[in-house]
């Protein structure tokens, strides 16, 4: 086990410069100007790090699963719900809602609506998993079912 040492390197009329070799366990939050040497035994570098930018999406709601929980049974459980949304070309993306959004998602009511069901989702985190895009809700995320946006009217069934 190594101990911290201090070696005087240079002395001038007004200053004394010292080199401090510190053991990491001896460092304190207020310590400044200490050099740490570290050996890295394994480094992981992502080939394509996922974007952490938050995005907005407007797609067709296809289906959703039941809410589930992740985490230990005694603490730190999070509620989630997987939703499949699709663009006009039929490409599906999985959207995961977390906690309150997953709890309050009105699956049965939404499933009874006339198709196509448009869903607009704000402030999603976008990531890639096995080269497929995935969306995940953030604390700022909200979703709108069949929002009244004029540009979307052409995708709704016409009423005669």
From TrEMBL:
<dbReference type="InterPro" id="IPR012340">
    <property type="entry name" value="NA-bd_OB-fold"/>
</dbReference>
<protein>
    <recommendedName>
        <fullName>Nucleic acid-binding, OB-fold protein</fullName>
    </recommendedName>
</protein>
